[in-house]
Write a structure and sequence with these properties.
single chain, alpha/beta, eight-stranded parallel barrel, two-stranded antiparallel ribbon
Length: 291
């Protein structure tokens, strides 16, 4: 079991200190959320809350996750970073490959790319991308990203993306792992087909257990039963040593957590109580879990 610190909706001037503290406390990674903008009105529900409402506002701070990776990577030496998850559907994969490759190089290979399609039609529309056929477009975009990031002179000729031979240098120092987010059957099949792992949004343990079991079935169908595969989880009903052990028994390999919420510390609170919570979590959970 690994533990990952989420920095969602955190004031941006706190990121460097939080990254250093997480590294000192024994966290394996930092999970970076993605939000392009806050649309005043939306024409679809947010898929990961019971009532479809967004739990952030127009004033909630967000940062581009690739920029944040470079910033936090510069003040750390061991801890890894991954997006959880970046909305690929509204982005151009060639431009994104340049950003991802840069983040991977600048962190010495300490970067993983968590990917989702995106749920908000306005994000597609305002970025000049059709919302229709978004799944097929994302599948091609993933192929483009992998092709470019693996290095060398490459070309691609697909339905949505088409380019002659190009090369982006330097290539990442090691293979960038891809993690697929999403709870639908289509997302799970995509993860089993092309990814090195799967990343959940907020789920209860029973839901996680069933989803992980389904992913294992899909991996076996593709002859990948023995391949390394990460199960990154945001579990909302099991905490503490016993709770994390239950998650591990269910198949979770990476717990995404925000330690200060257990102490009643808000997203916009000063950094000091967050640092205390990180170190306490390291001493009381991470160190004891590894015993």
């Amino acid at each position: 079991m690994k533990f990952t610190l989420s920095i969602a909706m955190t004031p941006l001037d706190q990121l460097g200190e939080l990254a250093r503290a997480a590294e000192e406390a024994g966290f394996a990674s930092i999970a970076l959320p993605d939000s392009l903008f806050y649309a005043e009105t939306v024409n679809t529900d947010y898929p990961y809350t019971p009532d479809g409402s967004r739990f952030w506002t127009a004033e909630t701070p967000w940062v581009d996750p690739l920029v944040a990776t470079a910033s936090m990577g510069a003040v750390t030496s061991r801890i890894r970073f991954y997006t959880s998850v970046l909305k690929l559907g509204s982005r151009n994969p060639v431009l994104l490959a340049r950003q991802v490759g840069s983040a991977a190089v600048l962190t010495g290979g300490r970067f993983g790319l968590g990917l989702g399609v995106g749920w908000l039609p306005q994000e597609f529309e305002y970025c000049g991308v059709p919302f229709e056929r978004r799944g097929k477009r994302v599948d091609e975009a993933i192929d483009v990203l992998r092709l470019i990031l693996d290095g060398g002179m490459v070309e691609y000729h697909g339905e949505f993306y088409d380019f002659d031979k190009i090369q982006m240098s330097p290539a990442p120092p090691s293979r960038v792992p891809f993690y697929i987010g999403g709870h639908t059957e289509v997302a799970l099949k995509r993860a089993a087909r092309v990814a090195d792992g799967w990343s959940s949004a907020m789920m209860k343990l029973d839901e996680l257990r069933d989803t992980i079991a389904r992913l294992r079935e899909l991996l076996a169908e593709r002859g990948r039963a023995g391949d390394p595969f990460e199960y990154q989880a945001v579990c909302i009903d099991k905490f503490g040593l016993d709770g994390y052990r239950e998650q591990a028994e269910a198949g979770v390999t990476d717990v995404i957590t925000m330690p200060w919420v257990f102490d009643g510390v808000g997203f916009d609170a000063p950094v000091e109580p967050k640092l205390e919570a990180i170190h306490k979590f390291g001493a009381e959970i991470i160190a004891k879990f590894e015993e």
